Amino acid sequence: MKSMRWLIRLMLPYWRRILLALILSTLAITSHIGLMAASAYLLARAALHPPILDLMVTIVGVRVFGLSRAIFRYLERYVSHDVTFRVLSQIRVKFYQGLEPLAPARLLNVRSGDLLSRIVADVEIQQNLFLRVFAPPFVAVLVLFGYGLFLAHYDVRFSFILAACFLVAGLGIPLGIKGLSRGVGRRMVALKAELSTQVADTLLGMTELVVYGQVQKHLAKIQRTDQKLNAQQGRIAGLSALSSALTGMIANLGLWAVLVLGILLVEKGNLSGVNLGMLALGTFSSFEALFPLALVPHYLEQNRAAAERLLELIESEPAFKSSGVLSPKPKGMDLAFDEVSFRYESDAPWALNQLTFRIPQYGKMAIVGPSGAGKTSVVNLLLRFWDYDEGQIDLGGYSLRDYTPEDVRGFIGVVTQRTHLFNATIRENLLLAKPEATEDELIQAAQQAKLHDFILSTPQGYDSRVGEGGFKLSGGQRQRLAIARVFLKNAPILILDEAMAGLDPLTEREVMDEIYRLMEGRTTLVITHRLLGLEKMDEILVLDQGRIVERGKHGELLQQQRLYHMLWETESVFN
Amino acid sequence: MFDKRLVQEGRPVWRYLLLTVGLSMGIAFLAVAQAWFVSRVVAGVFLEGATLRTVWNALCTILGIIVLRAVLQCVSEISAHEASSRIKLSLRKRLMNHIVSLGPVYARGERAGELITTVVDGIESLEEYFSKYLPQLVLAVGIPLLILGFVFPLDWKSGLILLLTGPLIPVFMMLIGKLAEKKSLHQFQDLSWMSAHFLDILQGMTMLKVFGRTKDQVRVISRVSESYRKATLSVLQIAFLSALVLELLATMSTALVAVTIGLRLVYGTLSFSAGLFLLLLAPEFYTPLRTLGLNFHAGLSGVNAAGRIFEIMDQPLMGIDEEAVNKEGDTLKIRREHVLSTDFHLSFQNIKLTYQPGSTLALNGINLSLHSGEKIALVGPSGAGKTSLAQLILRFIEPTAGEIYVNGGLHRTISLESWREQIAYVSQSPYLFAGSIEENIRFGGPSATIEEVMTAARGAAAHEFISQLPDGYQTQLGEGGTLLSGGQAQRIAIARAILKDAPLLILDEATSGLDSESEHYVQQALKRLMLEKTALIIAHRLSTVRQADLIVVMEQGRILEQGKHEELMRKQGLYYRMVTEYRGGSI
């Protein structure tokens, strides 16, 4: 229930609007009760043939209720949706604030697009939170009390009948159905997931299925799962049919019981016959408040599960805590690793094992090695995404730990294999690197990255949108944009993390010139598993399983005929 | 909102749909009866001094009606679900069959995700169309007519009020629906932009962190959320307004009926019992019309999903060319079913290929032949058409122009299954299925014994690492299962191909991402796999290329040059450049 408390806390700031929405909803139902009750009362009074003037108040009442019902309903819808979206925005912000310190270390296993989409869906599902989970029970209770009081005015036993029916239909039936459907619901979710997996398996692996003649077998498997799913859905549908039939029946039974009690009271002279129809019809109408309750357990479960997944994410500990002190002023831009060891989990093998190297200011070093050798871990440590376990990393004469992570990142410009472009304009994507940059600075950076002419050729120049909805950038243009960002940021340290991977050789060659220009006057660290053009490096480290196995210049390493040479030999030739 | 083709899907289950509608009509009839008894009882007690004893029989009848209504209600809903469930089952099956028949080229890349969604969720959204919307469409006409049948004989004035206001509800609904469709539905689809934006930020979080921009995003998110709220509300407002109009029509005409009856009661032109009966019927008259309005969205999403589903099912299939088959003699056909098991000869003659009409040529005039026992290496930059060539041989696609011949006969007259049975294919990123490793290898030979599976794994240099896994060959792969490295997955795929032992091998070499150890083993395994086989290799490695009998250099859908390594090096063409530039590259 912790997740529910979290959600309620997020709703609290809007309690005024929430209260208003609840009251409006109650008034809408009250108007409905009023319309039917007043109409029945009007008919009963009229049947006694009074002068028309005596009926005027009732007639006006009927008309007002008819009008107010629709208006209250409209207002209620507006206010409650307004609340919903405000709460949703709050959830998004709070979730993001909780997530931000954890990225990217604690999000490593949720980085895939699929899981991220699920997170987003978990947030969006909270749309139901107020509308379908919180509001219905409150409104039902308010209607019960309001109309109960009205009934008690005639005979308190009417109120008891109402309360009994509300309890059975509002609490008993939903809980009973939930109890009956518990196992079914879980099985259904599991089967739906299984169906999804099997369909995905079949579509994504179709090449293999077709080549190995396994298509029919897989289709039959899907069909079987679908049938099982259908059987479970049938049960759920049966239960939901039972629930709605029972709820309807209770409403009718309430009308019946009020009628019977009313007849008895009329017989004894304790109730005027005029009121009999009014009480029965009013009671029946009041059950409108109960119908949404049937689905509350379902939505509650859904929202709670989603909220729990969100909380679980943002409650994990950050990879390390920033000391938050003032950073020292570095005495240069040299980098030094001294016997640095690091692993991602305390029981995992060492990702980096006693790594020692030094890049002098403006020096150029490359780290190569097969995948899984620990190259990316070096970048993760430098960017302070993770903290190292042993040894010492120095930047400009001070320990990396003496700086705030934000300041360290401020010194470093990164070009990675996959440059994330936000679904925004080119300008906004560039300005990420330096929000206060002037137009001239922007254009200069784009020119240095040889991107300017291309940008001008797009329909709206710097204001063209990229990514989804906009035009797509080619791999080379993406990397140029990343390069332009680094020019703009003008960071003294440059990390190229597989910056050329995924580009075809011709594009690679073209972009390379800009990369060289970017390296000028910066301390550079190149991470790559391709051994292309490493002749210009001052030093090359060959990493394998977290250790430095070879080091030296390109020519020296080739002569040694060891891992570097082997990598060189098996390297892909044609792309 | 009334999709003809979708409704026709309901034909096989018309009995269930009819039952649903029939029962609902029965319930409506019972509601009328209940109203009649209730008004009689109230009138009796109120005006005629009846006691509980005298109206007890009537009360018991009402109780019976109440219970019967509940039972019918339950059966009607179950029957509606049964109908939709059968439709879903059948449609999902046919849709999957069709997608699979369209082949891997249709379902590749980004489209796969969308197809999965359509098969799983799209079909699911038809449930409400058939169980709720479609029956309600009939009931929204039937029930009001039924009720009018009781109202008119009793009081034609009330009947007239209902008759005049009732149809206004669907009319207004349609008008508003049209308006909404024009104005808001367009935006409604865009309403997912908030979640898209949020996803964008989450995906780019690392990037934001590098640039120290994560903290600002809080403001951005709340700002975008705020404008999203306003935009959404302005769209929803139209929906709310439409609800207001509908609600107003129903309540105001109920009030109108009540007041009219009240006045007539005063003048004594109508009995109280009849008046109350009419009043009780008014909500019953409007309810089905309003329910239809509530189910509008179910109908809309059903129709939208159906649009996509039928669009996929209308994609033309390719198969064997029956006409061409008939032209050939029967003897020739039979002989060619297992054509690759003996000496064969495969030739491409002036092949052209476009993936979409009007788009650029993926292959442009390819002439190539492959004899049994040969190993051909295809090289060239990405986008040169190497993979298209492999897809053509596997018949995932048909050439736009030109013909492929097998031993002089037309390639497309051989049945797809028996043709593919004779080919083993190892793709660049092999797909491993949810299931055990053993099951995954057994793809190559469903009837293979576990020993044969292990032998194949040994040949693929996979046995060792599989044995080291805690569950060995029973290790579960796929979502939630063990994750294998790229090299390990490659070796499983090679084991599959070894087990299949097909005469023709098509191989797409992995470009990168293997660790050095895997790399070595994969190379060894491939060498063994290719022994004594005919092979077409999309090559990325110099070592593989050197061993080939023929190197085919492709660029932009054309064959630029072909020959052995030494010949091509002497020629100093593209191949020479690719080899030397890579070697002498200055970064």
Folded structure, characterized:
The complex is a heterodimer of chains A (575) and B (587). Chain A has 19 helices and 10 strands. By secondary structure, chain A is of the alpha/beta class. Chain A folds into 2 domains: 2-185 and 242-314, Up-down Bundle (ABC transporter transmembrane region fold); 335-570, P-loop containing nucleotide triphosphate hydrolases (Rossmann fold), CATH 3.40.50. In chain A, the strands form 2 sheets. Chain A has a 6-stranded mixed beta sheet, sandwiched between helices. In chain A, strands 2-1-4-5 form a 4-stranded antiparallel beta sheet, covered by helices on one side. In chain A, strand 9 (539-544) and strand 10 (547-552) form a beta hairpin. In chain A, helix 1 (2-11) packs across helix 10 (296-314) and helix 2 packs antiparallel against helix 9. The radius of gyration of chain A is 35 Å and the shape is elongated. With 587 residues, chain B is α/β, with parallel strands linked by helices. Chain B folds into 2 domains: 4-314, ABC transporter transmembrane region fold; 342-585, Rossmann fold. Chain B is 65% helix and 10% strand. Chain B is built from 24 helices and 12 strands. Chain B has helices spanning 4-8, 14-47, 52-102, 110-124, 126-154, 156-165, 168-190, 193-203, 205-210, 216-266, 272-294, 296-313, 322-327, 330-337, 386-394, 416-420, 437-441, 450-459, 463-468, 486-500, 516-530, 542-547, 565-571, 574-584; strands spanning 345-353, 363-371, 375-379, 401-406, 409-410, 423-426, 435-436, 476-477, 504-508, 534-538, 550-555, 558-563. Chain B has a 6-stranded mixed beta sheet, sandwiched between helices. A 4-stranded antiparallel beta sheet of chain B has the order 2-1-4-5, covered by helices on one side. Chain B has a two-stranded antiparallel sheet with strand order 7-8. In chain B, strand 4 and strand 5 form a beta hairpin. The longest helix of chain B is centred in the N-terminal third of the chain and has 51 residues, at 52-102. Chain B is elongated, with a radius of gyration of 35 Å. The mean pLDDT of chain B is 84. At the A-B interface, helix 2, helix 3, helix 4, helix 6 and helix 7 of A face helix 2, helix 3, helix 4, helix 8 and helix 9 of B.
